[in-house]
């Protein structure tokens, strides 16, 4: 997903964008490549906590799900402006 798509989605669903869309784009791409997952699925996991295969068990994040989220967070804050 490109930064513009991220911003449009978040503003369209939540009204405003608090975070840096460019940093989110970079973090999503890095994490998706690192874990070999779909970028849009990862985006919805991060933004809306929508489960991906193996990310939740009984409503809680699995170690795999936490790994995805933490990798995204670390990359996001490495690039945040």
Please explain how this structure is put together.
This protein has 81 residues and is mainly alpha-helical. It has one domain. It is built from four helices and two strands. A two-stranded antiparallel sheet has the order 1-2. The relative contact order is 0.18.
Outline of the structure:
The protein is mainly alpha-helical and 81 residues long. It is 67% helix and 5% strand. It contains 4 helices and 2 strands; from the N terminus they run αααββα.
Give keywords:
81 residues; single chain; mainly alpha
Radius of gyration from the alpha-carbon trace, in angstroms: 12 Å
Shape summary: globular
What portion of residues is helical? 55-70%
Count of helical segments? 4
Strand order of the largest sheet: 1-2
Number of domains: 1
The average pLDDT is 94
Strand portion: under 5%
Report the sheet with the most strands, covering strand number, pairing sense and barrel closure: 2 strands, antiparallel
Order of helices and strands: HHHEEH
Regions with pLDDT < 50 over 5+ consecutive residues?
none
Distance between the termini: 19 Å
Secondary structure tally: strands: 2
The secondary structure category is mainly alpha
């Amino acid at each position: 997903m490109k930064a513009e798509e991220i911003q449009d989605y978040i503003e369209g669903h939540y009204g405003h964008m608090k975070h840096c869309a460019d940093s989110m784009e970079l973090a999503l791409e890095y994490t998706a490549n690192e874990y070999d997952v779909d970028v849009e699925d990862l985006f919805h996991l991060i933004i809306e906590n929508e489960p991906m295969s193996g990310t939740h068990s009984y409503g809680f994040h699995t170690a795999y799900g936490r790994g995805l989220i933490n990798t995204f967070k670390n990359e996001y804050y490495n690039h945040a402006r």
